[in-house]
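Sorry to interrupt, but I need a hand with the structure work. Leave the record below and I will have a look:
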Amino acid sequence: MSGVFHLVKTNPALAPLFIFGGGGIVGGIAYIGHCLKNGPDVIINKSAPEKPWNRIQAHENAKLWSPNKEFWQQRKERAEELKRQA
């Protein structure tokens, strides 16, 4: 690690390379962790009786980002309305 600091100290033009490269690595690892934790099709605990994709309700959005948020809000409202009627 001190070698990197010495290299950047002697040649400051390399600082953005290490900053953005390190940020990309950290972001990639964070995304993999997010997918492992929240992904409906990822099974880490193989002894659990329930399959993860069965826990997702019809009104839940399993995506990391959705451009159509109103659609999921309408589905949630419909599901709540059906629960009240039943």
User: Anything to note?
Assistant: The mean pLDDT is 84. The radius of gyration is 22 Å. The chain has two domains: 1-38, 47-86. The first helix runs from residue 2 to 10.
